[in-house]
Amino acid sequence: MKNISLLAALVLFAACQENTKKREPITVNYPTTKKVDTVDNYFGTEVPDPYRWLEDDRSEETEAWVKEQNAVTFGYLDKIPFREDLKNRLEKLWNYEKVGSPFKEGDYTYYYKNNGLQNQYVVYREKEGGEEEVFLDPNTFSEDGTTSLMGLSFTKDGSKAAYLISEGGSDWRKGIVIDAASKEIVEDTLVDIKFSGISWKGNDGFFYSSYDKPEGSELSAKTDQHKLYYHKLGTPQSEDKIIFGGTPEEKHRYVGGSVSEDQKYLFISASVSTSGNKLFMMDLSQDNPELVTILDDTDSDTYVIDNEGSTLYLVTNREAPNKKVVVVDAANPTPDNWKDLIPETENVLTAGTGGGYFFTEYMVDAISKVLQYDYEGNLVREVKLPGVGSAGGFGGKKEDKEFYFSFTNYNTPSSLYKYNVETGEYEQYWKPQIDFNPDDYESKQVFYNSKDGTKVPMIITYKKGTELNGKNPTILYGYGGFNVSLTPSFSIVNAVWMEQGGVYAVPNLRGGGEYGKKWHIAGTKLQKQNVFDDFIAAAEYLIDNKYTSKEYLAIRGGSNGGLLVGATMTQRPDLMQVALPAVGVMDMLRYHTFTAGAGWAYDYGTSEDSEEMFEYIKGYSPVHNVMEGTAYPATLVTTGDHDDRVVPAHSFKFAAELQEKQAGEQPTLIRIETNAGHGAGTPVSKTIEQYADIFGFTFYNMGYDELPNQAVIKEFKD
User: Fold this and answer.
1) pTM for this predicted structure
2) The pLDDT of residue 2 is above 90
3) How far apart are the C-alpha atoms of 251 and 348, rounded to whole Å?
4) Which of 218, 346, 415, 538 is the least buried, fewest Cβ under 10 Å from its Cβ?
């Protein structure tokens, strides 16, 4: 067992920080983490795995380890003097009404709403001219708010609905069918649904996807054969028919089914990884529909966006890395018959439909631009957005004459706008009443050069008048993977950070989708190091341009972004003061052996692919690159004990390695949320507590004894 004294306020900080006071050191007594003799052999190279036992999420030993680690972590966090102030400020700022875009189903208009601090959003509805009523309140699903609503789907006439719930943050869902008018449950609950939506076929039943329940732990055991089922109402789930995925020839890790708006076709997507899919269809107007192949390879991301009779409209990046819209007849739907409708441009396309039009959102350096087209591919208009930022929700049913879209950026809370599809005019429908003034803050987009000279964009947001003196507490947030694009959006927790004089910086790293497929590919497999280099270069830009300095820089990311933080802090521990890896993929040699992790191989490759790939992955895998005798930054690893997407063993092993090998005086702690998963559906109360701890830990380890902006704290206390 190690005893490490943390001198959280170093003399160095006192010289450059007026509000820093000398304080008593906090002693951290880490629990002893048992080591075992497990060794794996990869292409003749033996790799020890001393903490393999922590992968058993069902063992009493692991449970005891979690309790011991949390006791140490919360014992440390309890001593941070302004932790409660942060929690109170988060609660106050969070406490405003939030409303989702309305949508029409049958005779009702539905919408999600949260009155402020409710753990879960409530689904309301109203008839035209009628009064608002609660349709579904997930806050009543469990006493502690950890059971969440994770999907809601109506029949075409709106008479029935099915919804999915998650318990404790798990990706395994339960499905419940109700009569929409009476809200009464009409049949037994479906179980063991995973990575699935619900798509109705008339009023008779619906399609959904799942895996066979694995042997061993349902939270960590491997799942790799996804199946599409049809559930007929009034029959037991055990009789549900497998539509696709039940044979060795149809084996895929991800399978999904979607019924066209006119109920004529079922479209089936099948993938072996998170990128690239095959595409099939069935004509539901036939008694015994045959499976028709649209696309029989996984070389592209392709899906059907709409149809008019037998005319299909598809979005694809096949021979178009930035995506395009193509048209084809269902009688001959293969790629050799596709015709371009909305051609590829230099910017990445995301397409939706509504009111009989296509709406294409383009990312221009991660900023939204929206165009409206008719079904002949003619440009109708550009939608002039309310500002520079991110627009979302451009879409609706074919008969809709109006729908709603949202607009936000890093310093502007999301507002809703009602859009007229014929005139292109819109008006503000809802604006949040929040205790935060966006006019006090500014966002600036910069471009910097990565290690290999690649130009990378980054948006930096902070309070107007911030002095660039190298002393501003700064969070550098990144993701860089899976074709995911980080576009500007408002966050309550980031608002609290910026209120305290904090800088929030988000670079658009390679591996993401901001510049299309080529940008994504440039951060995958044997090019994954580009992502870390981009992130490191972003940190260096912020330091070189005096936004911050090493002593005031924190790096943060979750999931694949947790890997980003883990790799960056082990490669450049000298670059930052604080590291905040959340639910990260940390054991890159074994990630593919858990749950659906093998599906991430498109981005990562696996340690079994080849000796070259093994050596490359081992070279950056965070668990395998914590070195004895190295001074690592103050680190708060966060995870959930029910995370069945990136299993918590990743974080457990990484924390154990850090605690064993840390040579510096900075703390290396792990905060394990109980009865929580990968993040989706986490109750508001738990989220507020998490960020009070994360920001408290960050400020404290930057040398602060009190929050930088005490005026805000005093104001809301008064």
Assistant:
1) 0.89
2) no
3) 31
4) 346
**Active-site residues: which are they?**
559, 678
Distances in whole angstroms, Cα of residue 255 to Cα of each of 116, 165, 507, 601: 37, 20, 32, 17
By three-state DSSP, how is residue 506 classified? strand
Q: According to the 3-state scheme, what is the secondary structure of 516-574?
A: CHHHHHCCCHHHCHHHHHHHHHHHHHHHHCCCCCHHHEEEEEECHHHHHHHHHHHHCCC
Looking up tokens 């005096």 gives: 546
Interatomic CA distance for residues 462 and 474, integer angstroms = 9
Q: Between the CA of residue 212 and those of 162, 272, 393, 592, what are the distances in Å?
A: 21, 17, 34, 18
Report the share of the chain in percent with pLDDT over 70: 93
Instruction: Write the DSSP assignment of 10-21 as a string of letters.
Output: -HHHHHH-TT--
SS3 state at 684: helix
Rounded average pLDDT over 553-557: 98
User: What is the token pair recorded at 77?
Assistant: 């966090």
Give the pairing type, strands 578-582 and 634-640: parallel
SS3 250: helix
What's the token pair of residue 557? 């990311």
Q: CB within 8 A of 296, min separation 6: which ones?
A: 278
3-state secondary structure labels for all residues of 358-372: EEEEEEECCEEEEEE
In the 8-state DSSP scheme, what is residue 484?
A: -
Q: What angle do CA 447, 702, 1 make, to 5 degrees?
A: 120
List pLDDT tens digits, range 501-521.
999 999 999 999 999 999 999
Rounded Cα distance, 270 and 356, in Å = 28
Residues written for the chain? 718
> Torsions phi, psi of 11, nearest 5?
-60, -35
Alpha-carbon distance of 321 to 307, in angstroms, equals 23
Angle, alpha carbons 361-362-363 (nearest 5°)? 125
Burial (CB < 10 A; 0-12, 13-18, 19+), residue 551, is buried
